[in-house]
User: Fold these one by one.
Assistant:
Number 1:
Amino acid sequence: LVAQLAGHAIDFSRSKMEASKIAKKKKGTSESINARLALVMKSGKANLGYKSTLKSLRQGKSKMILISSNCPPLRRSEIEYYAMLAKTAVHAYAGNNIVLGTACGKMFRTSVVSIVDVGDSDILRSTADA
């Protein structure tokens, strides 16, 4: 489907196809993070919640922090500041706190997850690429 607009040819089919590829890629990365997070919960060790995340950051035990999309800005900036001091990777999780809690295999919501031991998962390398 090609349309002429003020002398410029616009190819709509190509742009839709590219948009679907981008959407699939984004969906695929979130699914892979969920799978890796499930593996961390099964074989490794993770702390759920704001207070326990701050404790693990202060002790220097955290390897990575996942923050949900709807975490309050003040809390987010505080966690990012502690993570910067502890030289810990921070990943902005695409879903909200309900989805993050479900991805951890819990029946409650959590806005912050601190990964202490990755176990068999390769979540640190996969999020470094993204």
Number 2:
Amino acid sequence: RLFLNSRSVPTSPSKMPPKGKESRSKDVVTREYTINLHKRIHKASFKKRAPKAVDQIREFAKKAMGTSDVRLDVKLNKAVWSKGIKNVPFRVRVVISRRRNDDEDAKEEMYSFVTVAEDQNIKGKGTVIVQDA
């Protein structure tokens, strides 16, 4: 049996390790992802597959970048709808960039911009951090 000593687990907030998520979500970054749309629109009716795929891309970007303001590029929309409303591509390679919001009356200081990647070859590629030149 495994018995845990009560002293081995930090209990007070001062002893807990600092969380770095707050500072990480504030900087500008660009990443390239492969989104598996096939599993995200499973069991959706034919006339709702492409709209649901667009919504799922928006949800993915929201989770990945931590911003509630997500803007999709027109080219990405055309790529999702390229085979029609019911034959959505199984996977799509996207570039998600977190940018500063220049509007004065914006609710958040950052927003995510999602566009389709130029190279749609998917095999052997994971998440890549894109270096801005």
